[in-house]
Amino acid sequence: MENEHKQTHDNTRSNPFEKELLKGFWQESKAFIHQLLDIRNDTDKAGTILDIKENISIKGHTAWVLVFSILICSIGLNISSPAVVIGAMLISPLMGPILGVGLSIGTNDIDTLRRSLINLGVMVGLSVATSFFFFLIPIFDNETPEILARTAPDVRDVFIAMAGGLALIIALSRRNQQTNTIAGVAIATALMPPLCTAGYGLATWKLHYFGGAMFLFTINAIFIALATFVIIKFLQFPMLRYINSIKRKRIARLASFVALIILGGSIYLFFNLFREDQFRQHAQDLINDLKKTGVSIIDEKAEHINYEGQTIKLVIYGEKLSQKEKEHWERQLPDYRLQGVSLVFEQGVDDSDLREEVKNLTDLYVQNQKILSSRDESIKEKEAKIQLLEAELSKQYQGQIPFGQLSREAQINYPGLQRLSYARTIQTNFQSVDTLAVFTAAWQDSIPTSVSTKKQLAQWLQIRLELDTLVVRHD
């Protein structure tokens, strides 16, 4: 009993210590997280407002920089060079008016809002006009992957614009601005390529390209402005004060109304893009499952998945689907979250016999290729044997001497020579094997032959035949 009481007393003494330890750890964690994520510290509100206002105007030097950057971007799109497009985005002054819109709404600055909207309109008009005149040149009116990539926005562009806008205004609001962050946001949000693509759409009279590109630019501009507005409010930038209280209230209401419109439009755009993206994903899942069952679907295009018309067009090649099979897949649509969607099947004539004939011809061609290949191998083997025999024969010829011509010359040079014979002798000392040219000379007894004459014959044969060593025997 006494031990239980002592254990309980020890537990009550340890509990306050553990609570204090946990409390201290929690406080330190909160302080670390606050210090890590706090953006209010080191914020230069006055400097940020001044920087944004100074970069709103599109005139003079800024206008020419915009024109030339648009021209560079248009060339980059035309040659499908991401590096050139990125370089153009780095020097473009497109962010100024958009940031001005977000700042003016966040601080109730109606004059800055008016100036930002005017300059934004000038910026868009000048950009589209520059790219329009560039793409009017016939040699530059071809479609490229870089152009096509800017004709249809999706929900990911919303996240890019929102995240880019937040990063940009946070970087600008610091006392020491991060230039690399600002440049990176200019590249990531990609405001310039959609305007160039819009000019391309007008120049080539492809209005659906113009509409898609302007929609992409609008999304980027709205969400960058919205991100600026959110950070301005979060950092509690000073509101512009008006002497006239009635005017102040009217402007505050107008700014709130514009902010509400931008926010509502942003939510609406995001929701529509999200639904369209989901629709396309579900439709692609259906098409992939159709392919897995052996259905041959060709000519897949983005416009075949029509979100507005709620239709999916399937161009089928080969064996036709029966009506029962069509109805089966139409019943499967709810499983893919495609309720109310119509499947449009486009099928040609049943070419099963033609495809079977093509397959037979293909098999026959493969067999013939195998036969030809085996024949080629046999010919190559025979050619290799012939080359080997020719090499051996050449070696044999190289060892031969012009014995007939040589014997006639020897008879003239040495009148006492009665007979001359020649043989090639192979000898060994059990360490190496040598081949020797051996001549046997028979002399007439009636004609005396000196030792020097015999030696001279050996020297003559050696020089005449260009041999290093030879043997001359005398009978």
- The chain-level mean pLDDT equals 76
Oligomer: single chain
| C-alpha end-to-end distance | 138 Å
Q: Helical content, roughly?
A: 55-70%
List the secondary-structure elements in sequence, H or E.
HHHHHHHHHHHHEEEHEHHEEHE
Note poorly predicted spans. Answer: none
Q: How many strands in all?
A: 7
| Gross geometry | elongated
Measured on Cα atoms, how large is the radius of gyration?
A: 47 Å
Question: Key features?
Answer:
GMP Synthetase, Chain A, domain 3, 475 residues, 3-stranded mixed beta sheet, 67% helix, Glycerol uptake facilitator protein, alpha/beta
Structure characterization notes:
With 475 residues, the protein is an alpha/beta fold. It has helices at residues 2-37, 45-54, 61-78, 82-91, 95-107, 110-135, 145-148, 155-172, 179-189, 192-203, 207-234, 245-292, 323-331, 352-398, 403-413, 451-465; strands at 296-298, 305-306, 311-317, 342-347, 417-428, 433-443, 470-474. Strands 1, 2, 3 and 4 form a four-stranded mixed beta sheet that branches. A three-stranded mixed beta sheet has the order 5-6-7, with helices on one face. Among the domains are: 8-35; 45-240, Glycerol uptake facilitator protein (Up-down Bundle); 403-474, GMP Synthetase, Chain A, domain 3, CATH 3.30.300. It starts with a helix and ends with a strand. The radius of gyration is 47 Å and the shape is elongated. The model has no long low-confidence stretch (mean pLDDT 76).
